[in-house]
Amino acid sequence: MNSTIGQYIQSIVNPRTETPLKVTTENDIKRGPEIMKACQWHGAKDMRIGDLERPHVTDPGDVVVRVTTATICGSDLHMYLNKIPALKNMQEGDVLGHEGVGIIDEVGPEVKDFKKGDRVVIAFPIACGNCSYCRRQEFSCCDHTNPSGQMEKMMGHRIAGVFGMSHLTGAFQGIQAEYVRVPLADNNLLKLPDDVPDDIGLLLSDIACTGWHGVELGEVSAGQTVVVWGCGPVGLLCQKWSKFRGA
User: Fold this and answer.
1) pTM
2) Strand, coil or helix: what is 190?
3) Closest CA to 103 of 138, 67, 133, 135
4) Per-residue model confidence as pLDDT tens digits over 82-102
5) Which of 93, 80, 107, 71 is nearest to 171 (CA)?
6) How far apart are CA 148 and CA 157, in angstroms?
């Protein structure tokens, strides 16, 4: 991570109102049993912590991450309220969550850039790295990781697979669990430095990048005056990144 951007992200946590989480290391967590806890959907407004069989490497490019920190995104409300307009887009027992930090517990034989014990942040979209979209770095539009015919029929095209975002985005198990399988790990993980705590690194899963993308689309530069409509998490990050760029 660029050290200047990393320091700026660190400043987002207000030390007067928030207590940063500690950096979780390999020694902090003991290997769990084959059954894990996970946050599961059982219907509109019905979330429960349940027992599931923990995932393992199933494809040679996979890793399994022991999740040390996860969070709730505003888009999780679509699933929570069961408001995604598609047939059986949510099924009882689905695990939600697409933002997380953890420690690699298992590594597939074709993974090149990561090893067991690496502390990583998990990207919310699942990118193949080879399709035309990925080659243009438009990873959330990856053409290969989401097999949903419903999405293609409804919207004319499929976006990438996404962790814990219903069967419209590939039915991948979410990150609000003790373990998660990360396909195509070399494309979808980022190593975290030891001096970046979990709750700061977590922002790189989704929300900090979404705010940065908004600033990119707005072509924000030094000396400009910026107005942001909507001051939820994305809007607040847009303000932060605009200030970072000198606006």
Assistant:
1) 0.83
2) strand
3) 67
4) 988 776 788 999 999 999 999
5) 93
6) 10
Rg (CA), the chain: 18
Residue 194 tokens read as 């030891």
DSSP labels for 117-179?
A: T-EEEE-SEE--S-SHHHHTT-GGG-SSS---HHHHHHHSS---EEBTS-GGGT-B--SSBSE
Q: Tell me: the pLDDT tens digits for 218-242?
A: 999 999 999 999 888 899 999 999 9
Evaluate the CA torsion angle 200, 139, 186, 41 in order and state its sign.
Answer: positive
Q: How far is residue 4's CA from residue 242's CA, in Å, rounded to a whole number? A: 15
Contacts of 245 (CB under 8 A, 6+ apart): 215, 220, 221, 222
Contact 62, 186 (CB under 8 A): no
Alpha helices in the chain (DSSP H): 3-10, 76-80, 132-135, 149-155, 185-188, 198-201, 207-217, 233-244
Q: Are 176 and 39 in contact (CB under 8 A)?
A: yes
